[in-house]
Amino acid sequence: MTLADFLPKDVSLTIAMALCAVAFVSGTARGFSGFGSALIFMPLASSIAAPRLVAALLLVIDFVAAAPLLPDAWRKADRKATAVIVLGALVGVPVGTYFLSVLDPVTTRWIISCFVAALLLLLLSGWRYRGKDHAWLSVGIGGLSGFCSGLAQTGGPPIVGYWLGRPIAPIVARANILLFFGASDFFSMVSYAATGLISRESLVLSLIVGPVYAIGVAFGASLFGRASERAFRAICYGLIAMAVITGLPVLDGILR
């Protein structure tokens, strides 16, 4: 028995190795800077394999990686404020999942590339919401983040930009973000399972790609403190931009 014998029928050994390489790079970015994994992974991975498969793959491996952080986040978070935003995700995640399940792969790739490009601009802008806290705004931000997560597991920038701009302690903001994404990932797991996106293929592939992603996260975390965070964030932004450009369907005839 070889590794190829365990792969889904539509995934060759070359594709699996390419996904592992992308997972390592995106995991390294997350381990060091705490963000950017999905924004790097999704444009590149969806140009290698079906967007539905790689979105489910990223959901599974990231859900497993984040689960141990939730108990501590539950203790430190402002659970009431987080619950309001989670209400938005409860609506946004199924809507995003629906579009992922019905759109053809090329259209989905275009949407992912455009979304990630827009989210990169949001990150580059340094936007932080510093206005008053309104329930309708919290629900709207949660809904937008949930939609991005359901469609392409890229719901980080809106929710991070919102919470980090609030007049609360950083430890509470971080806990709120972790708790929100724990709930959002749970909604995504249910939605993906209901629409058949969580499949045997995605689970088998997660057993192969997941450990490589975890190694990347650990490697990135080990680099923290050895290099300027500003410099590394700049590298992450560059990698995200490269992922967007490389993942564009219009370049398929040249790059693939």
Automatic annotation (TrEMBL):
InterPro entries named among the record's database cross-references: TM_pro_TauE-like (IPR002781), TSUP (IPR052017)
Location in the cell: Cell membrane
Signal peptide range: none
Keyword ATP-binding: no
UniProt KW keywords: Cell membrane, Membrane, Transmembrane, Transmembrane helix, Transport
Presence of keyword Iron-sulfur: no
Residue ranges crossing the lipid bilayer per the database entry: 15-41, 53-70, 82-103, 110-129, 135-165, 177-198, 204-224, 231-251
Highest taxon above the source species: Bacteria
Topological type in the membrane: Multi-pass membrane protein
Coiled coil: none
Family under the similarity heading: Belongs to the 4-toluene sulfonate uptake permease (TSUP) (TC 2.A.102) family.
Protein name: Probable membrane transporter protein
Species of origin: Bradyrhizobium japonicum
